[in-house]
Specification:
Layout lengths: L3 H9 L30 E4 L21 E5 L2 E4 L10 E8 L2 E12 L21 E11 L5 E13 L15 H6 L15 E3 L3 E10 L5 E10 L12 E8 L2
Parallel strand pairs: 3-9
Antiparallel strand pairs: 1-11, 2-3, 4-5, 5-6, 6-9, 7-8, 7-10, 10-11
Length: 249
């Protein structure tokens, strides 16, 4: 992601203090059985009436931002979206309002450098250079009847293992060129495009994330779709949230 390094550097200023234990020492008994491939859509509730999420969807963008430009795997990408990849193992799907998020495990690799986070007890890096990493691609499709104007967050996804004991999220690969090597985008939108990112009915986009890989285990997902106002600002009053899980291979 073009913004990933800047974001991580801000987090790094907080230092190891961010990594105090959550008080959770859950073991793998909380995971789903290895090999489970369907996502569990445990909640998909708008903070307000989700139908109003799209009332400001088209007036603030030009026609080009609403026209599809390329397709992949039977999906049509919005013109502002990076090319879509559906390669890898599909782990499941989760609905966030009118949006369907298909989850693909695409590749494994090794961390290019030490992460910025240190275990406060052992003083060791949580993800040192060479640690195994996994790349997960989230393909989002608007299956509703109305256009959805997305903010810069697009669909914000936070993933953690059930036994992850740190308050801060999980580290992963921070270099965009490694994502590109695997045919993935860690931004989701093209350079030079701006919010609102209007996702018309039937259109899709994708955005990948990387995590420290700990073998086949459950990945808990918290998803948040925050629409955009005509000026691109967040329209938090119409935020839609969902939770689910998939099991990595």
């Amino acid at each position: 992601m073009r913004h990933r390094l800047a974001s991580l550097s801000l987090v790094a200023l907080a230092g190891a203090a961010l990594f105090t234990g959550c008080g959770s020492n859950d073991d793998s008994s909380g995971d789903t059985a290895a090999g489970t491939s369907s996502a569990t859509d445990t909640a998909s509730q708008p903070a307000d009436d989700s139908s109003s999420m799209t009332t400001e969807s088209t007036g603030s963008t030009d026609a080009a931002s609403q026209a599809p430009t390329q397709s992949s795997g039977g999906l049509t990408a919005a013109s502002w979206a990076e090319p879509i990849s559906t390669k890898g193992d599909k782990l499941g799907s989760i609905k966030v309002g009118d949006l369907t998020v298909d989850v693909y495990q695409v590749a494994k690799d090794k961390a290019q450098e030490d992460s910025m986070f240190v275990n406060p007890d052992t003083k060791k890096n949580i993800m040192p250079k060479g640690s195994p990493t996994v790349f997960v691609n989230y393909v989002v499709t608007n299956n509703g009847a109305k256009a959805v104007p997305l903010s810069n967050l697009l669909v914000d996804i936070t993933a953690t293992y059930p036994d992850w004991k740190y308050l801060q999220g999980m580290p992963g690969e921070a270099h965009s060129d490694v994502f590109e090597k695997h045919g993935l985008s860690d931004d989701g939108y093209k350079l030079g495009t701006d919010a609102p990112y209007v996702l018309q009915p039937g259109q899709s986009f994708n955005r990948a994330q990387s995590y420290l890989y700990q073998g086949p285990k459950k990945l808990q997902l918290e998803l948040k779709s925050v629409p955009a106002k005509p000026n691109g600002d967040l329209d938090s009053d119409h935020e839609v949230q969902a939770t689910g899980s998939v099991t990595l291979k």
